[in-house]
Amino acid sequence: GVKEQHVAWPAQYEENLQCACKNIVQYCLEGDADLQFLLIGGELVKIRSSSWKKNRFYKLQEDCRTLWHESKKTFRRNQTFSIDDIESVRKGRQSEGLKKHTDPSVEEQCFSIIFKGRKKNLDLMAVNAEEANRWVSSLEKVKTTISNLSHQQKSEHWIINCMRKADKNEDNKMTLKELKHFLRQINVEVDDTYAEEIFKKCDKSNSGSLEGAEIKHFYDLLTHREEIDVIYNKYAQTQGQMSLRDLLNFLLNEQREQATAEDASKLIEKYEVDETAKQKKHMTKDGFLMYLHHEEGSILNPAHIPVYQDMSQPLNHYYISSSHNTYLMEDQLKGPSSTEAYIKALTKSCRCVELDCWDGANGEPVIYHGYTITSKVLFRDVIKAIKDYAFKTSDYPVILSLENHCSVEQQKLMAHYLISILGDALVTKPFGDTMPTNFPSPEELKGKILIKGKRLNKLDAIFNNNNTIEEGTVSEEDEAADCENGQKKSKIKLAKQLSDIVIYCKSVHFSGFEHAKDSHGFYEMSSFKESKAFNLAETSATAYIHHNMDKLSRIYPAGSRTNSSNYNPVPMWNVGCQIVALNFQTPSKEMHLNQGRFLTNGTCGYILKPEFQRSLSSQFDPNTLTQGPWMKRKTFYIMVISGQQLPKINKDKHKSIVDPLVRVEIYGVPADNASKETHHIENNGFNPMWNENFQFDIHVPELAMLRFVVEDYDTTSPNDLIGQYCLPLTSVQNGYRHVPLLTKRGDVICSAGLFVHLMLLDAQ
After folding, report:
1. Catalytic pick from 293, 369, 592, 738?
2. Is 178 annotated as a binding-site member?
3. 257 marked ligand binding residue
4. How far apart are the C-alpha atoms of 99 and 91, rounded to whole Å?
5. Does the annotation place 285 within a ligand binding site?
6. pTM reported for the whole predicted model
7. Which positions in this protein are listed as binding substrate (predicted)?
8. What confidence tens digit (pLDDT) does each residue in 628-665 have?
9. Rounded distance, CA 341 to CA 326, Å?
10. Which of 49-58, 315-324, 363-372 has the lowest mean pLDDT?
11. Is 369 annotated in the active site?
């Protein structure tokens, strides 16, 4: 056979453990000045408050994955955090802390490290602007290098790290005891006889410890994927390798792809690691594993990753990723309000955010959760944050849903801030010279911000020269009337300046579908509390769908959800509601479904609704399922084969090793909702094998979401979530596929994954 090569394990790694641990990031950035800058490190001022500003030394550790900084607290001399935990590095006084505690004159010297999840920002100041720029660009470079590592490199890196931790006495050799510690680190329980067996097999020199090439051999034994050998050997019909023709057979027969010889050739060119094989247009087992671990081998159809849908339909023909109480970082009663929460939601491609506006001190309007003790944040600061971050991850329009409790004076100031800060981005009049009859498209509204709120008159007034009302009373926004404290619906005065910038999203009270059809323009929209919306979705689904063909609907969680929990968004999408607002700050199954729904189409925050929710002749009802274009019956076969490197959940329990099980869930129309789970496997998170088959009957595939949940089985208490992944069923690729896994918060778990076989076939 051909000599096996691992592209991600260059020859110089083989000398001893020290070399084997030579860092892959260093390897990618060999001799890079920015990397050297970080490895040497330097003094920065850490800023916590106006009075707490202290010099601290920061440097990148040798593994190029961890940033170390000194700490003056006696019980923790040194503190570290992983580069993987960084969400972004922001130049300038961009965080709330820096804006509050530093002077504008040091703008150029400041930067912030923003972490994933709820960890507090790290606010820092360098000696001068040049130094600050150097820190920002260097950290970004290392972060990008790490995120660009292939799955193969990441898992090898993961193993090297664990090996290093296991080498307790740092002699670059591994004894049997260290080997057992290492296996526990990577979540594999082996009994003593098995551990000795691997050890003896690798200890060619009979020295009682492993070093150099023996460690490489040990690594190969560990990463061996039996299930992939079986598939590879079935198709490798040419001198023990896959020829171009063999690979094409695999793509056509197993992966059910419309592949050509040219496609197979491109895959060999892209993923084959052995040059000799590449020249022969062959694919070795290593190349095959590489292919399976990249996007072509992923469960998510690569054609659906960029914006692939028609973006020129009216705005109300799309589901729109939407957040409720966007200003909250935690719960509804006492959590902090923050501009940071807006930035986090917008950079996750949320396209509709909520601003709960109240009169503040010094005539300045503020945003917070009224009648509660959540902290307050200036309206002006939130609008600035929105201006800066609205279009970082998506060019498509953002809707600001205003819940207005302010006096007329402060409303005038709100209008002034919206107009002056947002500038050209703000839509202040309808497109065209005549009264429009329906919405512009997301394409036409690229880079634009729309205001949703009350308006004193109809939109036609703009074209009839009739727009002269100075101010008037309107009833408060529905949701405010739904206040937790049971206040009665009140009337408020509305300033003309604020009324005038409400164009395509005028808030009106809902008095039934017939009334809306007869009395409301396309731009007049209602907000529905979840209980009301669910009731309508059950009793008048078809009418609701038709209402949403012409207008926008916004759904929001019940006021009783003071802990910021969420409702299931799927029944709302089933009846064509566009703005299904969820508490983005709460990691939950409902947010996983939202992330899955908006995962495709360039994660731009807009997904085109199915044709049967847009076509006026449609009589679709998700609850009764009569025949119609929505009925595309499918049988979905799935085999859960294996898992890779599932992380330990309870890091504190020294000997805790996971007992993983996989649950496969379908969410869609009621008839399609289903859930099936595998048995659990005892004590193996490293390479558990389930080989279990499931079958699901699907009636309306265009509304179905597929969710994988991996849990750590526990007899005595609820299972812990290990990881999850959710995507639209119509974006699933057939065949043998890898499934990435995300944390509860929705961040990728680097080396973990599932390996499955899928078939979505027309029902017989």
Report:
1. 369
2. no
3. no
4. 12
5. no
6. 0.81
7. 46-73, 452, 454, 527, 554
8. 878 899 999 999 999 988 887 766 665 567 899 999 99
9. 6
10. 363-372
11. yes
